[in-house]
Amino acid sequence: MKIAHMALAALLAAAAPHLEADDGGGGTRLKYRYAPGEKYRIVTEISEDVFINGTRSHSSDILNKISVDTAEVKNGSGRLDCFFRMSERIQGRYEAFFLKEDYHSVFWRDERGAFTIDQGYFMPVVRNVPLFPTGAVRPGDAWSAAAEEVHDLRRGYGVERPLHFPVRVQYSYLRNEVREGVNTAVLMIEYNTFHRVPAAAPSSRPMPDKITGTSVQTWYWDIAAGTMHSYEEEFDFIFFLNNGSNVEYRGTARGSLIRSQPLDRDSVADELNNKLKEEKLDDVTVKKDRNGVSIVLENVQFPPNSPELTDAEKSKLARIASILRKFPGRDFLVTGHTARIGDEETSRKLSVRRAQAVGDFLVGTGGIGKTRVMTRGMGSGEPVGDNATEEGRRRNRRVEIMILEN
Length: 406
Hints:
The protein is 17% helix and 47% strand. The protein is α+β, with helices and mostly antiparallel strands. The chain has a 17-stranded mixed sheet that branches.
């Protein structure tokens, strides 16, 4: 299991905060304000080391991208409709990030920062952080408040429901600082936790028995805009298992809130079609859907049952990468599809490896930033042609590179 970034909720909280001057003399009141229809993205990058029984197992980079839509505003509270894309890459093995999990959450948050959320949602990981005082604050002030962590233990431990446990958070308003030309208020947020996990039903898998850890976050708050400028974090969490083993997740994180223009699908599709005609690329088409605009590469050539790109495909991808670089503010999702070869699990694994090969090429050779490319494999489960015919199988052996909406 990989620890999801401890400050996801913290950045969600920075959606549309507003700073008000206190009438009483120099302090600042922090509270949230929400604008109906407001959309933005949150991007967090994590570098994590995993230790099993004190011995380093591996290191990985984790990339979290969260799309937030302020769906409704009522009495100063906002209802946020959020999609979380969580991806990972093992250091030293891959260039692009592999999409591991998609989550959807809808919740209310009030002016101070308190959540109202169904307990069945796995995201955000940290809730009720920050929880602001009702009055003004100034550099040197400190306060504390209750919060909650929520963990998804399905993949690693087979626990189907979210695991909730309380934390007590300490807040410090450190100073004001100019950061990258922006006047920011610097806040420190830190907490330690020790939690005994309630006994679960008997299982053949080792199960978490106790969780202990610490998180130290520094926020840089844009005072004029009333939004989060950026953040940094150090964390160290240990899961003690009921078989006597333990797993430690130790690392650093950083993130930012990004506001991007809506994707004009018609305009982007027209531009892509014109570029593809100029490049005279065969077996390449463009399609639109609610998530973005895709370049579809049909009949992608790999050696039999192999994820290795042929020289011809590398040449084609280099030309496509030059087109993608025309969209510097957008992220890309590379999806691999296969014709049916044997059982579906074999097809899925091959599609994963082939999508990773395309993503790695776009990053390593194509000059696309590593945090902008995610990959996934869908196996043969979404055919566009008849697998009983060669023409259908040719169409099904495809890779789709989507320019994402948000």
